[in-house]
């Protein structure tokens, strides 16, 4: 008898792929050697026509579904959508999920050892962009024998990668599914990212990014950065329903520094937990990649012209209470794709959870997601 539900991929083992050929980056530097850590779910068919790439968001990684061991407390971060009979059905698809370059979950990043020095890269790790990630993912696809993805799928920063795939390698994907995303960040979004970065770089333990050499981490700064970010991922309705103005005790303490409201306690817990498992330099790198993403900048800010070469059918989904990546930003993409004469589907889901809704098993969202993915044709 299986220890896991029938719709779970079960136990999975991360895989590691080394690359020796230098990868030329948008910043002008190159990276070599480097490694990418990834997981796969399902079986690649004989024609390699059923492969789906999962692109992760800011704090994501390769572990998108299933479990690494039997007593693991939680499954992968997108287990709600990946597995037998789920939206991304592993009975039909061969799913690849990786940790991007610059990450801190196994792929080469700032916390990795620089072979030229024998020490952690730290602040010397090169700046990487969404476009760089897509090029590295294409190299991984080559080694896996995948010439064309049935679909590239992602939410938030992952959705930006899916869009970049459709722009950079139009012949290498048949469908692009971009959820809760945008063609570029707004000034407000960049501002939130900068506040988070300042929390990190002004921490006395940051040491200009070389904190590993001092045997410390900028825990306070990373905690504050996560607290700021987490507020933006939830809607006012979601926070109100979850916490309201509930107090941790029966009355106010009239103490300027104590934790009195449940929402305060929640944010502090989220920040402290995050600071123990995520690398500060990676956080800086990921938020900069978000800020830099603007493919239309190379085409005089003409988004329709930018998308003119897209060959994939595109599915866009947004959530009504997502104020960080609002539905208006998805509609901007819809309008540009239609102006460019492309096949595009769009659904705006009424959901109170805010930006994080794309991670949750919201019935209408899952139904639409499943319906679209089930219509993707793959060889028998």
From TrEMBL:
Domain of life: Bacteria
Intracellular or extracellular location(s): Cytoplasm
Catalysed reaction equations from the record: L-homoserine + succinyl-CoA = O-succinyl-L-homoserine + CoA
UniProtKB keywords: Acyltransferase, Amino-acid biosynthesis, Cytoplasm, Methionine biosynthesis, Transferase
Record: active site: 156 (nucleophile), 322, 355
Gene Ontology biological process terms from the UniProt entry: homoserine metabolic process; methionine biosynthetic process
InterPro entries (UniProt xref): AB_hydrolase_1, AB_hydrolase_fold, HAT_MetX-like
Main location: cytoplasm
Site (described: Important for acyl-CoA specificity): 324
UniProt xrefs under NCBIfam families: homoserO_Ac_trn (TIGR01392), PRK00175.1 (NF001209)
Cross-referenced HAMAP family: MetX_acyltransf
Record protein name field: Homoserine O-succinyltransferase
Biological source species: Halopseudomonas salegens
């Amino acid at each position: 008898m299986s220890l896991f539900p029938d719709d779970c991929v079960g136990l999975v083992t991360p895989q590691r792929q080394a690359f020796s050929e230098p990868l030329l980056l948008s910043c002008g530097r190159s990276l070599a050697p480097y490694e990418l850590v990834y997981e796969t779910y399902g079986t690649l068919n004989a024609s390699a026509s059923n492969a789906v790439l999962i692109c992760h968001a800011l704090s994501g990684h390769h572990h998108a579904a299933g479990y690494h061991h039997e007593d693991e407390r939680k499954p992968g971060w997108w287990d709600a959508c990946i597995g037998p009979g789920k939206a991304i059905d592993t009975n039909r698809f061969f799913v690849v999920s990786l940790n991007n370059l610059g990450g801190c979950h196994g792929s080469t990043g700032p916390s990795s050892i620089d072979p030229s020095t024998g020490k952690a890269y730290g602040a010397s790790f090169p700046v990487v962009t969404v476009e760089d990630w897509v090029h590295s993912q294409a190299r991984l696809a080559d080694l896996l024998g995948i010439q064309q993805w049935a679909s590239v799928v992602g939410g938030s920063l992952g959705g930006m990668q899916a869009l970049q795939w459709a722009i950079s390698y139009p012949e290498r994907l048949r469908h692009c599914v971009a959820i809760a995303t945008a063609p570029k960040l707004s000034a407000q979004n960049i501002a939130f990212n900068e506040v988070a970065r300042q929390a990190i770089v002004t921490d006395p333990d940051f040491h200009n990014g070389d904190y590993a050499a001092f045997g410390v981490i900028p825990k306070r700064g990373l905690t504050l950065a996560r607290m700021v970010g987490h507020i933006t991922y939830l809607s006012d309705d979601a926070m109100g329903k979850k916490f309201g103005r509930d107090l941790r005790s029966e009355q106010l303490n009239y103490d300027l520094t104590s934790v009195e409201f449940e929402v305060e306690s929640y944010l502090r817990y989220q920040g402290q937990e995050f600071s123990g498992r995520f690398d500060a330099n990676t956080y800086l790198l990921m938020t900069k990649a978000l800020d830099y993403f603007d493919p239309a900048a190379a085409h005089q800010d003409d988004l329709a012209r930018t998308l003119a070469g897209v060959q994939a059918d595109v599915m866009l989904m947004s959530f009504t209470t997502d104020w960080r990546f609002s539905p208006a930003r998805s509609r901007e993409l819809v309008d540009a794709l239609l102006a460019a004469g492309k096949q595009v589907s769009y659904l705006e889901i009424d959901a109170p959870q805010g930006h994080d809704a794309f991670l949750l098993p919201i019935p209408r969202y899952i139904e639409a997601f499943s319906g679209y993915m089930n219509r993707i044709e793959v060889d028998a």
